[in-house]
Amino acid sequence: MDLLPDAAPLATRLRNTLVQYHSIPGSEWRVAKRTKDATVWRKPSEEFSGYLYKAQGVVEDVTNRIVDHIRPGPYRLDWDSLMTTMDIMETFEENCCVMRYTTAGQLWNIIAPREFVDFSYTSSYEDGLLTCGISLDYGEVRPNFVRGFNHPCGWFCVPLKDYPSHSLLTGYIQTELRGMLPQSAVDTAMSSTLANFYSDLKKALKT
């Protein structure tokens, strides 16, 4: 188990990594799933043997409200059907914390519940916001859970220029679920989970 990292340099590195992902040309991505709410692409991850996923869709709401629903805080548990518990373990400053959360089983429990401990950081980006995270080897692993690991992940949320009450939400996710899992099951689950994330978020914002 590691000690907590120094928050400021980790936040800077994490933000820079996400901005780098955001500039990957479209030709490097392959479509994994399309729904009315979002398109999901993927490309081989440079961090581990799985994929880096990119998800994008327009959400009818202002940037701050959308990001408040995504980042660690009281809203996320209310609407994200995949997340079953969430605790803030450490707070460095208002926009920077370490959280522990658990996820529900997926694909008829082929993928058992997982636990993650993530460093989370939210900052301004262009006219909007970026909220990003990376897993830490920190805290005891609870029984009955496999500890998963999120390589650099994040969500860019910027207002549409012609429709400022709508926002373009773009996510980059690369989750190493760990444990004994067929890769095809993981890939199916990731694409569907990201598409469902948008539909669930939209429903939550309308309530």
From TrEMBL:
This is STAR4 protein. GO terms for biological process: cholesterol import; cholesterol transport involved in cholesterol storage; intracellular cholesterol transport. It comes from Glareola pratincola (Collared pratincole). It comes from the Eukaryota. GO terms for cellular component: cytosol; endoplasmic reticulum. InterPro entries: StarD4, START-like_dom_sf, START_lipid-bd_dom. Residues 29-207 form the START domain. GO terms for molecular function: cholesterol binding; cholesterol transfer activity. It holds the Pfam family START.
